[in-house]
Each structure stands twice: as structure tokens, then as C-alpha cells.
Design brief:
This protein has helices at residues 7-12, 29-37, 51-64, 80-88, 102-110, 122-130, 153-164, 178-186, 196-199, 208-216, 243-250, 311-327; strands at residues 18-20, 42-45, 69-74, 93-97, 114-119, 135-139, 145-146, 169-172, 191-194, 222-225, 237-240, 265-268, 274-276, 288-289. With 331 residues, it is an alpha/beta fold. The chain has 2 domains: 2-203 and 306-327, Alpha-Beta Barrel (TIM Barrel), CATH 3.20.20.70; 208-302, no CATH class. An 8-stranded parallel beta sheet has the order 1-9-8-6-5-4-3-2. A 3-stranded antiparallel beta sheet has the order 7-11-10, with no helix packed on it. It has a 3-stranded antiparallel beta sheet with strand order 13-12-14, with no helix packed on it. Helix 3 (51-64) links the parallel strand 2 (42-45) and strand 3 (69-74).
Length: 331
């Protein structure tokens, strides 16, 4: 795989130009470590986790791998306390999303860390680089989970590459196989950011029903909306169509406050906490109840995810396919 070494690999000290996206509650130490051990970069979503949990998870990852790994913070809210916990725990790859990273970057650099920031336009990429972000994640509209912009991956990536070169750009949104990674590299990206494919990994802390829904889905089965907003309002996202979406559509797509079943408890979390319809959390492994009716985040590349696999196998398959696509051979 030497031919796939890129500037991103050199920046992050990884072997392969691939980052496992921080897939919310489905991210966990076992998954991040498995991805990192396979030569890519494993990531943990830290935005809603306590500082104590962040430190524990970092320790658990280090017990499973000596390779680099990272954590992600959503900047919709102040995240200084969580960032401090991450850096105190030895995390040295930090990615930011959904806001202005400039108040946080110097602290990461002072700790010897590397900053990745997700953008949705070339102009935003320039601002992030001016603030000294070390790499840019260009997230296209096809992405699963929360979606920052409205430009497609294939249109966004070369614009961002042209805007910030030689800073490494990572393509995100709708990438679920090696052909997508190869396309991103041809567009000038230094790597790919893959989420939905890793939700369907054996190690991911996603509910088995959620994983199966991903396996069963085709490319037309996702919806772009702001429906699952309890806990995070007015934040567009992409999720699999399910009974909650169908219930809302059958009612004429009413605004918040008039949606059918609002406040209805439809499931329970791992500690018995109530999960309501339209809640923003995707179902993790130990959720019980109407799992299918919860937010099942997935990108438009979902139709390319055909089976649940170990994370290492996913990384290896993606890289074989990428090399084959770039050489014009069959994987």
C-alpha cells in the first residue's frame, strides 16, 4: 500500500489515508483501536461525553493500540472542558465540527497536537487554515449524521483542495467503498473520512437492528431533514427513513410542537433513561424498545454497505479496492 501514502498519512503518522468518522455513540474504544491497528485513524465522538468518560475511553484505547487515534468535538456549545480532558488524557489528534475552531486551536498545538476541522465551503476552509488548522475535512451533502453544508462531495472537494493547498484535505460524505476513496484522491484529497461503513462494523457500539437497517438499505433510503432535533435543534442531518419519519410525513410534515408523538417515550437507554421520539441520539447496543423509530443516521453511500464486518477487514477491503480502482484493475 506504499503508493497510497499521502500528506495526511505523514501528518497523522498513519499508514493509510483513511479516517473512521466519529460516529456518535456508535464510536467506542474497541472500534477506534481496531481501525488504528489496521493502519488508518480511529476516532471517538466526545461531544456529549463527560470529561471522566473521555479520559477513561482514551485509556482504554491506549490499552488496545500503540497507534495514533483521535477524538472529535462539535462546537455548537463551548467545549473547553472536554478539550482539556482530551489533551490531559494524551489525545493528540483533535477534530472540530459545526463552529469556529479558532478559540481552541492554540491549546491543541501547545500540547503538541494536530487539528482537523470540518468545513462545507472553500471560504470556510480558508478561514480554518488562517486559524492554523492542520488539515481540513470537506464534508459533502451526501454525508450521514449531522451535515454542515449543502454542496456535494464531488463538487466541494476540489474547490477546497484548490483553496488551501498544500494543507491536506480529507473528503467526507457518501464514501463507503474503495472506489469512493480513489475518486477522492483523484479530486486532490489526501484521504477519506468514512462513517456509515464503520457503523456496520462488529466493534461499533450500534444496536444490531441499526446495523441491519444499514445492511438492508439502498441509496434512496436516506432523508435529509432536521427532524431528530431533541437535544440539538435546527441542525440538518441525514438518516435512514423509518417509522418516525413516515409518521411525520403522513401528518403533513408539521413544525415542531405539532408533530405526532412528540414527547412519547419509545425506548430506553443502557441505564434505563427514557428515549423520546424525535430524539437526536442513535440507538447504541444496549438500547431497548422501538429501536427502529430512533434516529438511524446514514449517508447516501449506505447502499454499498452489504454486511457487518470486523473493522480491520473493512479497512483492508477499502484499501484493496482503492488500489485496484486507481490502477484500473478489479479488486
Amino acid at each position: 500500500m506504499a503508493q497510497l501514502k499521502t500528506s495526511l498519512c505523514r501528518l497523522l503518522n498513519i499508514d493509510l489515508p483513511l479516517i473512521q468518522a466519529p460516529i456518535g455513540g456508535a464510536s467506542c474504544p474497541a472500534l477506534a483501536a481496531a481501525v488504528s491497528n489496521a493502519g488508518a485513524l480511529g476516532m471517538i465522538a466526545a461531544s456529549w461525553r463527560s470529561p471522566k468518560t473521555i479520559r477513561r475511553m482514551a485509556d482504554e484505547i491506549r490499552a488496545l493500540t500503540t497507534k495514533p487515534f483521535g477524538m472529535n468535538l462539535v462546537l455548537q456549545w463551548p467545549q473547553h472542558e472536554r478539550l482539556d480532558a482530551m489533551l490531559d488524557a494524551g489525545v493528540r489528534v483533535v477534530s472540530f465540527f459545526w463552529g469556529d475552531p479558532s478559540p481552541y486551536i492554540a491549546k491543541v498545538h501547545a500540547a503538541g497536537g494536530v487539528v482537523l476541522h470540518t468545513v462545507a465551503s472553500a471560504a470556510e476552509a480558508r478561514r480554518a487554515v488562517a486559524a492554523e488548522a492542520d488539515a481540513i475535512i470537506a464534508q459533502g451533502w451526501e454525508a450521514g449524521g449531522h451535515v454542515w453544508g449543502e454542496v456535494s462531495t464531488i463538487s466541494l472537494v476540489p474547490r477546497v483542495v484548490d483553496a488551501v493547498s498544500p494543507v491536506p484535505v480529507v473528503a467526507a460524505g457518501g464514501i463507503a467503498d474503495g472506489r469512493g476513496i480513489a475518486a477522492a484522491l483523484v479530486l486532490g484529497a489526501a484521504g477519506a473520512w468514512v462513517g456509515t461503513r464503520f457503523v456496520a462494523s462488529e466493534e461499533a457500539n450500534a444496536h444490531a437492528i441499526y446495523k441491519q437497517k444499514i445492511i438492508d438499505a439502498v441509496e434512496t433510503d436516506t432523508a435529509y431533514l432536521t427532524l431528530f432535533d431533541v437535544g440539538w435543534e435546527n441542525a440538518p442531518h441525514r438518516a435512514l427513513r423509518n417509522s418516525t419519519i413516515e409518521l411525520w410525513e403522513a401528518a403533513g410534515r408539521p413544525a415542531k410542537g405539532n408533530r405526532p408523538g412528540e414527547g412519547e417515550v419509545i425506548a430506553s437507554g443502557p441505564e434505563g433513561q427514557p428515549l423520546v421520539r424525535y430524539g437526536g441520539a442513535a440507538p447504541t447496543a444496549r438500547v431497548s424498545g422501538s429501536v427502529e423509530a430512533l434516529a438511524l443516521y446514514a449517508g447516501q453511500g449506505v447502499g454499498l454497505v452489504r454486511r457487518v464486518q470486523p473493522a480491520r477487514e473493512i479497512v483492508e477491503e477499502l484499501m484493496r479496492e482503492t488500489a485496484a480502482a486507481l490502477s484500473g484493475a478489479d479488486a
